[in-house]
Amino acid sequence: MPHALRGIITDWGGVLTDPLGPTIDAWLAADRIDRDHYGAVMREWFAGLRETEGGGNAIHALERGELPVAEFERTLAAELRLVDGGPVPAEGLIARMFSAFHPVDEMYEVLGLARGRGVRTALLSNSWGNGYPRERFAEVFDAVVISGEVGMRKPEPEIFHLAAERAGLEPRECVFIDDLEHNVAAAIELGMTGILHTDVATTRDLLAEAFGADLHPART
User: Fold this and answer.
1) What stretch or stretches form a coiled coil here (predicted)?
2) Residues near 124 by beta carbon (within 8 Å), at least 6 away in sequence
3) Which of 63, 71, 98, 202 gives 153 a disulfide partner, CB atoms 3.0 to 4.6 angstroms apart?
4) Which strands form 7-10's sheet, in the order they lie side by side?
5) Which pTM was predicted?
6) Nearest to 95 by CA among 72, 66, 65
7) How far is CA 219 from CA 15, 42, 208, 216, in A?
8) What is the C-alpha separation between 120 and 122, in angstroms, rounded?
């Protein structure tokens, strides 16, 4: 018999914010960075072909808080180039990269409604040194887990367990929401119910079905 669901663990970027793709596109256009070259560099980095000085994946090290943001910015900027072939300024690179990460109020609303119906809620985010809107988190989350603050990152099993534990839950009692398929797959492997986020309406409907609750705001 399936275990009763009692909690929601959700990603931040791409779920509680605008999608990552348009956000990065806006930054590339604003900074006049060569888009094709950026894509080639990041494919190599995500494939683990860019290591830190001590060895290991630079992106993973950044997300675990092992690599200082300024050092990551300098390393990444050195690999990129402007459309005219010029150098990319390193200082503030990540802040510029995510400057179009605007909040999606409807998703905060969904989580708030779920929490108001007794569902435990937690944030689980891989950080790139992001400036999180922490003032909003108290409204909707019982627990917050930021990768760079705990030395772990998704999809490592330990960070999923930590998020569930901080929310006072077992993994099998949790629904996990993320916009990246490999993170959702990792959560499912641990016994969580996974939702691959594509849009607010679909995620709202899937959560409503999972918890047997109407998560639409009351109309006056």
Assistant:
1) none
2) 9, 10, 11, 145, 154, 159, 160, 163, 176
3) 63
4) 143-146, 120-125, 7-10, 174-178, 193-196
5) 0.92
6) 72
7) 24, 45, 17, 9
8) 7
